[in-house]
């Protein structure tokens, strides 16, 4: 995944014009934004304003590997995908041997963030980001 300098005016304008084009000209209903936590919050605020101006009911969801609350204040994304939580929820709901107490302990926010960060630090980057 390329790392774009979204603070640079020409890069920012190009990306925002692209977002506008896909909403207005092609008629998409929203955006799923991969690796959303790697992009500056100021850019996402402008992105949201541009998209919502073009289509107020457009849906914006970002991939975030940690606590997504910083993106959910009504000024960036409508929702976030939290894959680590998904894995824990599937293990609990599928009857794979995870009981309610283990599930509750697994979703403790600080413990959960620490576990995800530990995985990130220990993992080979290409393998970590490809899952």
Automatic annotation (TrEMBL):
GO terms for molecular function: hydrolase activity, acting on glycosyl bonds. Residues 1-99 form the Glycosyl hydrolase family 13 catalytic domain. SUPFAM superfamilies: (Trans)glycosidases. InterPro entries: GH, GH13_cat_dom. The keyword Hydrolase applies. Pfam families: Alpha-amylase. One of its GO terms (biological process) is carbohydrate metabolic process. It comes from the Bacteria. Keywords: Glycosidase, Hydrolase. This is Glycosyl hydrolase family 13 catalytic domain-containing protein. The lineage of its organism: Bacteria, Bacillati, Bacillota, Bacilli, Bacillales.
